[in-house]
Prior knowledge:
Elements: E1 15-19, H1 27-39, E2 43-46, H2 64-76, E3 80-85, H3 92-95, H4 101-107, E4 111-114, H5 119-129, E5 133-135, H6 142-146, H7 148-159, E6 166-168, E7 174-177, E8 180-189, H8 190-195, E9 209-216, H9 220-232, E10 241-248, H10 253-264, E11 271-273, E12 286-288, E13 291-295, E14 300-303
Parallel strand pairs: 1-2, 1-3, 3-4, 4-5, 8-9, 9-10, 10-11
Antiparallel strand pairs: 5-12, 6-14, 7-11, 8-13, 13-14
Helix pairs in contact: 9-10
Amino acid sequence: MKALTRPTRLAPGARVAVVAPSGPVPEERLAAGLDILRGWDLDPVVAPHVLDRHPEFTYLAGTDVDRAADLQTAWCDPDVAAVLCARGGYGAQRMVDLLDWDAIRAAGPKVFLGFSDITALHEAFANRAGLVTLHGPMVAAVDFIKNTRAQERLRATLFEPETVRVIESGGGAAPLVPGRATGVVLGGCLSLLAADLGTPHARTSARGGLLCLEDVGEETYRLDRALTQLLRAGWLDGVTGILLGSWARCSPYEHVRTLLTDRLVGLGVPVVEEFGFGHGEGALTIPFGVRAELDADTGTLTLEESALA
Length: 309
């Protein structure tokens, strides 16, 4: 697995587009998130359909065509330096096939930010465009709006990425399997990675990668099913190390931990738990597509080069 192309860091005054590829966006939370971006001296523009609601499926922010058009237009706008997702939820898988990946590649690298359901787009940008993307807090998410630590970590990554070459878990991490490993960082939401298997936008394997996994609102047997599907498909063959993030609103963590141990320890690679990314409070921003070294014993991820150029 090769490292991917890094977008350019943001500068004061940069125009950033906010899109909603997945679920509906609460207007008041969007407004609060935009205020934070303006406070960073950014120029946020909201895509036309961000506040839409699908006429039939209330879990979607507008129609598939409109959500895809918003992202496509924003990405291909030469004045836009970054495309930031407003929230996750569900729906990215429904619109990703509507994107023109030739046009996206031609538009060149830009910052792309999101997590959770946006995992489907992280995989697509890696596989179809060869770009580094950021797994981090979204503009209308509660953690971004209310948690200073999450804001500061994202801001540093966007503006001064060289200051976060070493990503520390914050003290909560512990090794399920000790050791060090190097590889290209990838991953996201476990259930989305499993659902993405066999699609045109997904990698055929995580071989050579440091895999980040987290999820939200899933019972243990559902997590078991997703992990077992990845194992049976051979997708985890050759992975070099695993970072485990948050399991918010899943089964009690002692049950989840037992499952993770059962399914992952047999891979024989370093595994670290509670690394601090995902749906938890004060979530880290993790770059996908950058080569790094994981030290499971100290709970650190050291990037070979900064997330953004």
